[in-house]
Task: structure prediction
Amino acid sequence: MRGSNQSGLRAYNERLILTLLRSHGPTPKAEVARITGLSAQSASVIMRSLEKDGLIERCEPVRGKVGQPSIPMRLAPDGALFFGLKVGRRSTDLLLIDFLGRIKSRVRLTHQFPDPDRTLDFVREGVRQLSGELGDRQQGRIAGLGIAIPSYIWEWSNIVGVPAERIAVWRERDIRTEIDQLFDFPVHLQNDASCACGAELVFGGTDYPSDYLYFYVGYFIGGGLILNNALFVGPTGNAGALGTLPVPTGGDRIQQLVVPASLCDLEDRILDAGGDANALWEQATSWDVDPEILDPWLQQAAGGLAYAIVAACSVIDFQLVVIDGWLPERVRRDLVELTAQKLPELDLAGVLRPELREGAVGPDARALGAASLLLSSRFIVSQSMPGNGKGGSG
Result:
């Protein structure tokens, strides 16, 4: 990350310094200047301005053996606040996060399938409720709302078991514009799996390579691409959707990855066995799923993921693949381990075998990624800019 001492680049340099403090943690002004290449005077002037604006704050002085104590600067938790809305097939979540990406409060709605009008009512009331829990100063720090929503949601009626005419209403609605008209802060929208990938980029590990592949296991599996340390969504917002990748699912059958590796299939298995699948969507911290149901699904999902990973790595030499989802930690760990075990069973000739890791963000990645759309667009350098269209595919 390099700054410029030329005039007219103040806004870029401000975002550059905020990005550095986000990735490096508390850092003295002199070190900020050294890392960014800014002059000591430029770095000092910009950081004083950011401090005055309430975006950064001073840490306790660090005293060395000689000379004046060093005063590291860090991001101010309440420097900016962001709403993140995740519209899913079984639930809708609204989070309020602080400048560090920590969840301050949340509200949730479960359903059999999302309805546009009900979603608008939920967002209107949810924002009112969560904003009302803030003080006047914090309310003035709300920077916007991001939406994570599956694209082409109207095309999945046969899988979700909802009449096509009920789903078709989403095709005619511009939910971003409708929500934008409710509030006086900006509203951005992106496909839900790309949002999850973006959350991993902003809030996840700091030791990742510049390019990696990301999967999010939700009601439908989706994913994203990180290229050159930025989320790549392509011209339509659908790049890296991953759920549409064709994979073998037994015998000569070829199906999209969403079939063997999505939670909708696990839900069907539970229902077919006479169980109650509602607990899958109430929380992702723990599930009480019969191992005789869960284990075969994990084996199937891991097989599909392994095939998809090899196919993707045949196109781009990804050194790392990250797998996350609406999954308890134990289930996520088992899925990653099983996928890693199945990779050597495939033909890897000419393919760089990647490292597999669990995601660092967890089940809330989609909503956190939605909130980070505004964070990225205003306060971060080298992240993708959010879209304002109808999104991609999750």
